[in-house]
Specification:
Layout: H1 9-19, H2 21-39, H3 47-54, H4 57-66, E1 73-76, E2 80-83, E3 87-89, E4 92-94, E5 113-118, H5 121-124, H6 135-139, E6 144-148, H7 156-165, E7 174-179, H8 183-186, H9 192-195, E8 208-212, E9 215-219, H10 223-227, H11 234-243, H12 247-256, H13 260-275, H14 283-302, E10 306-311, H15 315-319, H16 330-340, E11 345-347, H17 348-355, H18 359-362, H19 372-392
Parallel strand pairs: 5-6, 5-7, 7-10, 10-11
Antiparallel strand pairs: 1-2, 3-4, 8-9
Helix pairs in contact: 1-2, 7-14, 12-13, 17-19
Length: about 400
């Protein structure tokens, strides 16, 4: 006897109409709503309305407070934002220079070696540890004095701009620069919420560079012009659509982010896109990263300083568990690339592994920032390299 052919899905739906009329009506209305939201609504609603939904209420509030100088960061027309001087928030203390210091700083050198730290919160220690538990604090001794200008969410392009335009005047002997995980992604991003949709504390905008005819070209931003009236700013959205490589996250939100089913499909697709970097060559991203790192080195050496780069890590990169053990080791790829270019780079992953200290002790509760113990181990390794570099000067 021949098997009965499988009924088309639409016939099952008609059957559902008779057996469960309420559910049928709900599904019918929901499908119509999904089609309307995906195919029609984006051509009716202004993008600023979508941006209002995309940003959390805290991100919008933080942006408005940003221009009232009521956040721990203040607007800066050159780099996007910087630490607000004379700010105290629990264990987070910023001095009059905008640095996270353990003592009053003098422009006149008090010790033999002055070390300046630049980078993100991985360098300044984050908000969970005290100023005395940072890498820079542990590094200080009778010979070494430090000043730490690490700033939340900074990328290397901001490090370059801040040093080139202002921080060079501190006349350090050694410049320590943190290179964050996936550092090249920060270099193709302007608006932080497009790269990190969940980021609520630093929902700001930054400049970036691009390579044109073999040279770095700066794409400037104006925080006040672009963010002050957030989310009601079509100029901002147009600018980001043309210049921010993470604009696609917002663009797909406009079509697929408003309702649960299409939203789930979008989230799954974004996760797959995240895996692309393990399989696709990113020579253009590597070239931009190297160009900016070399420019930082050039500016520092022009100022009579030597540069040491810290390759930051996190718990996931150290463990390389699950699917990640079978994927390309992007951390090692970046480290080897920098070594081949003759740069002085400290591989913090290797430093931690060789310390034989339990990784749970090395990281803070957020599993990303270093704990006080982790910072102490990094400082001990860094001190060896600094003394060696000082002898070579």
């Amino acid at each position: 006897m021949e098997n009965k052919k499988e009924r088309p899905i639409w016939k099952h739906l008609f059957k559902l109409k008779k057996s469960a009329p309420v559910l049928y009506k709900f599904l019918f209305i929901y499908i119509i709503a999904e089609i309307f939201v995906i195919c029609i609504l984006p051509f009716i609603l202004d993008k600023t309305i979508y941006l209002s939904f995309y940003l959390s209420s805290q991100a919008k509030e933080k942006t408005h407070l940003f221009f009232k100088n009521q956040n721990s960061m203040i607007p800066d027309e050159v780099v996007g934002w910087k630490n607000r001087p004379m700010t105290t928030k629990k264990s987070w203390i910023i001095d009059e220079n905008g640095s996270r210091a353990t003592h009053k700083f003098s422009f006149d050198k008090q010790k033999s070696i002055r070390v300046m730290f630049l980078g993100s919160s991985m360098i300044n220690g984050g908000t969970r540890i005290s100023n005395h538990e940072t890498i820079s604090a542990y590094l200080e001794d009778d010979m070494i004095e430090t000043i730490n200008f690490g700033t939340m969410m900074y990328s290397l392009d901001q490090v370059l701009l801040s040093y080139r335009t202002n921080l060079y005047k501190y006349n350090e002997d050694i410049l320590v620069v943190g290179i964050d995980i996936e550092a090249n992604e920060g270099l193709i991003n302007h608006y932080i919420p497009f790269r990190f949709p969940q980021e609520e504390n630093v929902p700001y905008i930054k400049p970036r560079f691009e390579i044109c005819s073999g040279n770095l070209r700066l794409i400037e931003v104006s925080p006040k012009k672009m963010l002050e009236n957030i989310p009601n700013n079509n100029f901002l959205i147009k600018f980001l659509s043309e210049n921010d490589s993470f604009y696609y996250k917002f663009d797909t939100f406009c079509y697929f982010g408003m309702l649960p089913v299409s939203g789930s499909i979008r989230n799954g697709s974004l996760k797959l896109i995240r895996l692309e970097k393990y399989f696709v060559d990113n020579s253009s991203g590597d070239a931009l990263l190297l160009a900016i790192i070399n420019e930082i080195k050039f500016e520092a050496e022009k100022n009579g300083s030597r540069v040491i780069f810290l390759m930051n890590t996190d718990k996931t990169i150290i463990l390389r568990s699950g699917i990640y053990r079978f994927l390309k080791d992007l951390y090692n790829h970046q480290f080897e690339m920098l070594l081949e270019k003759g740069l002085n780079v400290i591989d913090i992953r290797s430093v931690f592994l060789h310390s034989h200290v339990n990784y749970e002790i090395l990281f803070d509760a957020d599993q990303s920032h270093y704990s006080a113990s982790g910072n102490k181990i990094i400082a001990d390794k860094l001190k060896v390299d600094i003394l060696k570099a000082s002898k070579l000067k």
